[in-house]
Amino acid sequence: MILLLLASLALLFGLSKSERQQALLFTEDEYPEDMDTLEEFIQSYYLLLDSDSYIKEYSFIHPEHNHLMNESPALTDFYHKLLELRAGRRERVVIYQIGDSHIQSGFFCGTARSALQKYFGNAGRGLIFPHKLAGTNQPDDYQISSNSRFGNISKPRSLSGYTLEITNPATLKIKTNSFFQIDSKFDQIRVFADGSADLSDDSGFLRVSRENNPACSSHLLSFAQMRAEAELKLPGSMERLYGLSLERDEKGLLYHSMGVNGAGFYNMANEQQFFQQIGILEPDLIIVSLGTNDAQGRYRDEVMKANLKLFMKNLQDANPSSAILFTLPPDSYKGGKPNTAISSVEASIREYATEHDLAWWELRAVMGGAGSINTWRQSKMAARDLLHYTPKGYMLQGHLFYQSLIKGYKAYSESGEPR
């Protein structure tokens, strides 16, 4: 297969640009202006070649299942936006991922984010939150500290999953690192909050703008130069902090993620503030990574379907222009035995996605199917509870997801249609 592809590449090198475009099935009108089809074909091919080399280190993976399902027409517009970003015709593409404890830890999303940004451009770390100040676990690629005391508000949920109550003026110290081997410096901080108070322009900030939507206000603050650290002064009149976004005034991909320990369709379906606040991010793609906790406890299929339907109605009513991609839950145990309810959750999501022309990714199938968490545990990729995964396990899942998305993009960049 590789020899055949290399032969094809050699043949394409001898063609004119118009002949190459015809060979790759796109026409001049369909392909973004200034995009070299051969260049994009070659770059995405080698991207997957490097990715495959990494995946081969893990013999328990089932790579034949690692592709997105029902991509057309679900992701066609999203892939085209990525093409436009690569061609310089678009400033930014935004992804927003919703999840549970698998996502809150940050290892899955951090791996996928850094890999995608190395190809599509780094527009910043995206959404962060002072989780430790709220009494919960925080991703490892940033730190937020403060000498002030805050109140933690768990309900209603916000776009970052959590909320801090601000009763007195406070200072947040923010510091990023290169945990995921990508430049984490930023020159903009976007603050999502309640209240009408303006933020201080001390500490080198140049206040740019404030934007309001019905669910929260967004304050965009900028620096003159890139930096890895900043101090943010919050006035007591701001009342509530919903989240922060670290960004770069550069073209590229912005990948936000929110995870809430214990989250599922069952307890997120009625979070109206959460759904409304997502819109201020203007996501081009929303990834829904829920289902593990819906399969815990006493599982009833009709309840799962009703919660899924309500969640999706509220999500899409508030964000009608965003493409949707489900990631089906990973393998897990319940009560010391393989959790058979996971199969029912998968079936419910597949059925809903098929009926509504949405895409999905079958993580458990890629992992090795039902019971595969045992193999992952033996390889030190899963935790002792056979429900969660180790940092290395989550990072492998993030890489697998990245690869599946690149496969879909590559197919679209070659032919104008997802696989």
Descriptive tags:
Rossmann fold, globular, 23% strand, disordered N terminus, 5-stranded parallel β-sheet, 419 residues, 36% helix, 17 strands, alpha+beta, 2 domains, 7-stranded antiparallel β-sheet, 14 helices, Jelly Rolls
Describe this structure in words.
The protein folds into 2 domains: 20-123 and 251-419, 3-Layer(aba) Sandwich (Rossmann fold); 124-249, Sandwich (Jelly Rolls). The protein is built from 14 helices and 17 strands. The longest helix is centred in the last third of the chain and has 25 residues, at 391-415. Strands 2, 4, 5, 7, 8, 9 and 11 form a 7-stranded antiparallel sheet that branches. Helix 3 runs antiparallel to helix 14 and helix 10 (301-318) crosses helix 11. The protein has 419 residues and is an alpha+beta fold. The two termini are 17 Å apart. Helix content is 36%, strand content 23%.
Tally of domains: 2
CATH class of the largest domain: Alpha Beta
Mean pLDDT across every amino acid position: 87
Could you give the distance between the termini?
A: 17 Å
Biggest pleated sheet: 7 strands, antiparallel
Q: What is the helix content?
A: 25-40%
Tell me the number of helical segments per DSSP (H or I, 4 or more residues long).
14
What's the overall geometry?
globular
| Beta-strand content estimate | 15-25%
